[in-house]
Structure formats: C-alpha cells, structure tokens
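Notebook, student rotation project (T.W.).
Task set for the rotation: take a protein with a known small-molecule partner, predict the structure of the complex, and write up what can be learned from the model alone. Partner molecule chosen: flavin-adenine dinucleotide. Sequence and SMILES entered below by T.W., checked by me.
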Amino acid sequence: MNFQLSEEHVMIRKMVRDFATNEVAPTAAERDEEERFDREMFDHMGELGLTGIPWPEEYGGIGSDYLAYCIAVEELSRVDASAGVVLSAHTSLAGWPVYTFGTEEQKQKYLRPMAEGKKIGAYGLTEPASGSDAGAMKTSAREDGDHYVLNGSKVFITNGGIADIYIVFAVTDPESKHKGTTAFIVEKDFEGFSVGKKEKKLGIRSSPTTEIIFDNCRVPKENILGELGQGFKIAMQTLDGGRNGIAAQAVGIAQGALDASVAYAKDREQFGKPIVANQGVSFKLADMATSIEASRLLTYQAAWLETNKLPYSKESAMAKLMAGDTAMKVTVEAVQVFGGYGYTKDYPVERFMRDAKITQIYEGTQEIQRLVISRMVTK
Ligand SMILES: Cc1cc2nc3c(=O)[nH]c(=O)nc-3n(C[C@H](O)[C@H](O)[C@H](O)COP(=O)(O)OP(=O)(O)OC[C@H]3O[C@@H](n4cnc5c(N)ncnc54)[C@H](O)[C@@H]3O)c2cc1C
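Predicted structure of the complex:
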C-alpha cells in the first residue's frame, strides 16, 4: 500500500493551490456577498486544464484521473466552496455521464467543449416533489417524430443559467417505473427550454442554483444519452462519482477553516498569552485535524477506486457522509476558536460554516448516504 501522492498529483495540487490563492481567494467574500459567478475565472480554469482533468486528451481533457480531480476541487474549496462546486457539477455531473454513456459524436460535440472549459455543464434530476425519491420525477418526454418533447421543471440546479449543456432526466414510459426514465442532453438554446427562479441561499452563494423549465422543449433523438429507459441507472451512477467531488469539497472547506483557526489561535492573545497555549483550544485544533485527515483518506480511497475501475458506490457514500459531517463540525468549531470575530464577515470562517452545510444535503442527504451504505453492508 502506498499513501504517497504521485508527482503528477503533487504538481496538480500545487498548480491549483497557486491559482486558488492568487485568483480565487481575493474575491471570494465579495462574490459571496454579491451572489456573483465569475465567468472569467471559470475561463481561466479552462485554460489551466482544470475543467477536463479526468478526460482523455482526445476529448479535450488533460488525461489525468479522478484523484487529481478531487484534489483540484479540494484546493478550490479550501478558499471558496462555490468555485469547488461549479467545477464539481461541471465535471462529475455533466462530463462524467457523457464520457461514460455518450456516443463518439456526443463526446466530441459536448464533452470536448466542456473539458476545454468553453462550455459549462449542469445536471437536472431534482424536481419540486421529488428530491431524495428521485424515481418519483414527473418531467415527461413524449416521442414526436425524430424528437422527444419534454415538459416539466427541475429545481436546485447547480450551474443553472450559466450552463450551456444540461443532462436532464425525464419519464419516457410511465408504466415502467425506474426503467421508464431516459437521460437527455439539452442545450440551453433548444426551443422550449428556459431558466426559472434563482435561489437565494445560505451558502455557496457565488455558485448559481436555479430552476430549469421545459415547455414543449424539443430534443432531437440523437441527444438521448445512453439507451431509452436507462436514465435512472445513469442518474444514480453519476451521483456515485459526484459524491467523491462533494466529499473533496467538504475536505477543502474543513481544511480552509482549520488553517484559518491555527493562524488565528497563534496570533490572538488573551490572559497574556496566545489562545493556542490553552489545551481547550489546541485540543480542538487536534480533533479538527484528525477528522479532516480521516475524511481525506476516505475521499482519496474512493477516487482511487473509481480511477482503477473498482466498485466504489459504498466508499463514495462513506466519504461524502464522513467528510460532510466533518466539514460542518470543523467549521462550527472554527467560528468558536475565533470567538466574536468568527461571527463577523471580517474573517472567512462564517462563510466556511455557511458553505459546509450544503455538503450534508446535496448529491444525496446524509440520511440517503446511510441508506446506501446500510443496504450494502447488510446485503
Ligand atoms: C444548493 C443546492 C444545489 C443543488 N444542486 C443540484 C443539481 O445540480 N442537480 C440536481 O438534480 N439537484 C440538485 N440539488 C438538489 C439536492 O440534491 C436535493 O435537495 C437533495 O437530494 C434532497 O432532496 P430534497 O431537498 O427534496 O429533500 P427531501 O428529499 O424532501 O428530504 C427532506 C429530509 O427528509 C430526509 N429523508 C427523505 N427520505 C428519507 C428516507 N428514506 N430516510 C431518511 N430520511 C429521509 C432527508 O434526508 C432530508 O433530511 C441541489 C440542492 C441544493 C440546495
């Protein structure tokens, strides 16, 4: 067993850390306050190759792997969890299903521009009345000549409004339950597609989350992803990999909060000495660091399994469960270490705490991760 990162992984971490420190961190608080996505920053991620880390060069990627991708999401999230999730949804939720289930034409037409960062991807599964129970979706797709006509809406779509390409799931055969769902690649300019309400959120505020609406939206048959009736399977498998990205996001948020806490605890003096000299504070930092390292190991293991084409559904659910809970716990403690100042916007820990909460909710809530894990450990 080798726990050392390869030279390539170390290099990618350094490159992303430099980018995150110099170009993402300085405006993170301001973009959060203004709920503003920065397209130029995304374009720069594309130029650096970050938008296509795991995809082969023939599809516009840099030919690295899922571990490198997780490291990139972690490093971005260390300073700005919004930047982390924009990349994560783009890569795991939109790029992955096209890479895995797409035809050669679909990969060239859709994966390549996403990998190159010229187009942004999104994933539309959740509906107003179907969240955890995704199989209860209502959005319908009716055959009409060489097209399918989609009607319905999806909510809470990360990258909604900024994305060019949406992977959308709709019911093609209501009689066949899960086997009656099909995945479609929808372009933002397709007739009948529109973007609805933009959510005002607690955290990850510079990552747009919107409703998307299908009003007799015409999708050519060649844009079916995978096979007719394979949609539910594609949706679920996509989330397995997506959870590795969210686990990485959670590890990054927690690490950012720990780094800030260590620096503050060494600097802040009370009772004539730095607060870190109290074990009440330094033991807190020790516990935070330990939980983060355990979460990181689970996350990297899941990414390694995915890279090596080994089963990883259970491990990615465990990584997301552990890392999400760690991010929440660590960021709450970080605010505590900062005392009153932690409760203000003068320091980043309040933003980290707000951002951490979403990692316990999306791509399957913590309860749904437990459902996935318990089914696998008791079968
Ligand atoms: C900021 C943000 C971004 C998102 N991005 C996307 C996206 O890009 N694409 C997309 O398709 N969706 C996205 N989502 C949707 C997200 O995945 C769902 O919100 C999530 O899966 C939960 O669904 P729900 O909100 O309907 O909650 P519900 O399913 O209604 O759950 C409510 C509560 O009940 C619990 N619960 C439900 N069923 C069970 C059960 N069987 N056992 C135990 N507890 C249960 C849940 O854990 C939760 O605590 C996003 C959401 C947010 C907030």
